[in-house]
Write a structure and sequence with these properties.
Elements lengths: L11 H12 L8 E2 L17 E13 L4 E12 L3 E7 L3 E7 L2 E2 L1 E5 L3 E5 L9 E10 L12 E4 L2 E4 L20 E10 L3 E4 L2 E8 L2 E12 L6 E4 L1 E7 L5 E7 L6 H8 L2 H12 L7 E5 L27 H9 L7 E3 L5 H18 L5 H11 L22 H18 L1 H14 L3 E3 L1 H12 L4 H9 L6 H6 L19 H5 L5 H4 L6
Parallel strand pairs: 1-4, 2-12, 18-19, 20-21
Antiparallel strand pairs: 2-3, 3-9, 4-8, 5-6, 5-9, 7-8, 10-11, 11-16, 12-15, 13-16, 14-15, 17-18
Helix pairs in contact: 3-4, 3-8, 4-5, 5-7, 6-7, 7-8, 7-10, 8-9
Length: 512
């Protein structure tokens, strides 16, 4: 992503409750409620237990003038335990829920839980179809003190990490439960509705236009996006034949030219990245820039979200590289738990370093040397552990820059041949699935034939600056112990740093 950040405190009781539910012996509760959380220690209430969704069908109607969203969501799922009830993560007002055709009772609880009790209990392994009819004004809803719905002068946008889905559709809101999507959105004529994947069709009737989008590869809930507004749309194909659709708000003002100069290179950059990461994993590509006031970009699957502010100082191709790299690292292979964020952000940042090398503006090694020398040993930068940064530092700059340093250290330890084999092999091994930092270490050891526990511990898990010997072994210590001035700033550095949103200014948003 680009760096986002609203953090929140979650009461330990929420986790305890989830653990308690999971601990009830089967004999005592043959039909027990699904857990209200999927089991992620960073966000105990995110996701849900007891079922797995394979497909979301969202049929929506949105009125830009009032921000009113009406919808019918159909979830195709299968139970993973005997269930007396189960939860969805959702914030809008629900009118009716049906489970396998029969009306179900429901109530809300916690910050964003929709608790559903079907007419009859569900046995483990049962196919389930859940239909939820709802309406509401997304911008009026908050959870944990914030909203992930961005109101714009001509509509609204859902794009945030680690959550945005609850503001526009009911879901199992955690990357572990990926699914395919059909998103059909009715908006007033003259307004566009942008989502992920391929635009299947549009049709107009009685002053309304319906946009039908399809994502036919598994997609995490936070990577699903919706943007409604007045957009200029461009289409094309990459050299390798992938269709590209980009959308630009009509009121970007002075940012419009720089946004186009950057995002219209999406196809070129995606083709370039295939040289490092292997075949592009989807059959659609693009990007969109709505008229939002945020400072981050986000790797929404197949069609990244960019803020106008990304282009305040001219073109910003580096941020496009970052978000497109996520299509492999983060989208195709998604994290198992939010603590595994390094696999997303360390590699997306490293792709920016590779682009710098490609552009002749500083090699990856020169960038590593500069980052290492720029942060003295007492800099709090080194106290963040990219391999498990904590929810409060999940999108901190160290996860990106120290995370990319770890990637360079790995490259130097195992050599280019094994390193680039891993870069391509990882998305293939875990295609459209989930994996952890531990999985990555095992895979890197398997491919390289080298023990890497010490290297991973030093660069990802120690809350301190790697010492001179460790750094020298990793060849990133050219400026060890020196001030940044002793290591020249690569020409690309300012462009790379510009992808950090307003990190330096407000400490509240970053590049996802």
């Amino acid at each position: 992503m680009e760096l986002c950040v609203h953090r929140r405190i979650i009461a330990p009781g929420a986790l305890a409750a989830a653990v308690l539910l999971l601990a009830i012996p089967a004999s005592a509760a043959p039909r027990s409620p699904g857990a209200p959380g999927i089991g992620d220690p960073y966000y105990p209430a995110y996701g849900n237990g007891g079922y797995d969704v394979s497909h979301y069908d969202l049929r929506l109607k949105y009125q830009p003038a009032t921000d009113l969203l009406e919808g019918t969501a159909t979830l195709v799922a299968r139970t993973t335990q005997d269930l007396s009830s189960f939860n969805l993560d959702f914030l809008l007002d629900v009118g009716e829920v049906r489970v396998n055709g029969a009306k179900a009772s429901f109530r809300t609880s916690g910050e964003h839980e929709l608790e559903i009790t079907p007419k009859a209990p569900l046995a483990k392994g049962t196919p389930v179809t859940v239909v939820v009819r709802y309406r509401g004004v997304p911008s009026s809803k908050k959870a944990y003190g914030f909203t992930s719905w961005h109101r714009t002068p001509d509509g609204g946008v859902a794009a945030n990490e680690p959550e945005a889905a609850a503001w526009w559709f009911p879901s199992n809101d955690h990357p572990l439960d990926k699914a395919t999507y059909d998103v059909s959105v009715q908006v007033p004529d003259g307004t566009q509705a942008i989502s992920n994947g391929t635009l299947q069709s549009t049709s107009s009737r009685l002053g309304w236009t319906r946009w039908n989008w399809r994502s036919d590869k598994p997609q995490a809930t936070y990577l699903a996006t919706l943007a409604v507004g007045k957009f200029d749309i461009t289409t094309g194909t990459t050299e390798s034949g992938i269709p590209v659709l980009n959308a630009y708000s009509k009121d970007l003002g002075g940012h419009a030219g720089a946004a186009r100069a950057s995002i219209e290179r999406t196809g070129e950059i995606a083709d370039w990245l295939t040289g490092y990461f292997g075949p592009y994993p989807y059959d659609a590509l693009g990007g969109y820039v709505p008229n939002t006031t945020t400072g981050y970009a986000l790797e929404t699957q197949t069609r990244p979200y960019y803020s106008p502010r990304q282009f305040a100082n001219g073109s910003n191709v580096s941020v496009v590289v970052h978000e497109l790299a996520h299509q492999w690292y983060g989208d195709d292979v998604s994290l198992k738990r939010w603590k595994d964020i390094w696999i997303n952000e360390g590699f997306a940042r490293y792709a920016q370093w590779l682009w710098s090398e490609h552009e002749g503006e500083g090699t990856a090694q020169e960038l590593a040397d500069y980052v290492y020398a720029s942060h003295p040993a007492d800099d709090p930068f080194w106290t963040v552990k990219p391999g498990d940064p904590g929810a409060e530092n999940q999108f901190g700059i160290a996860v990106y820059d120290r995370g990319a340093l770890a990637v360079q250290a790995l490259r130097n330890e195992i050599g280019d041949e094994a390193f680039f084999t891993i870069l391509k092999g990882w998305p293939r091994k875990y295609a459209h699935g989930n994996a952890s930092v531990a999985d990555f270490q095992r895979y890197a050891e398997e491919v390289s034939g080298k023990p890497l526990a010490a290297l991973f511990d030093t660069w990802l898990f120690q809350p301190s600056k790697p010492g001179v010997p460790a750094a020298r072994a990793a060849a990133v210590a050219k400026g060890a112990g020196a001030v940044a001035a002793t290591v020249p700033q690569p020409r690309s550095w300012k462009k790379i740093a510009a992808t950090n949103g307003v990190h330096e200014h407000a400490g509240a948003e970053h590049v996802h």
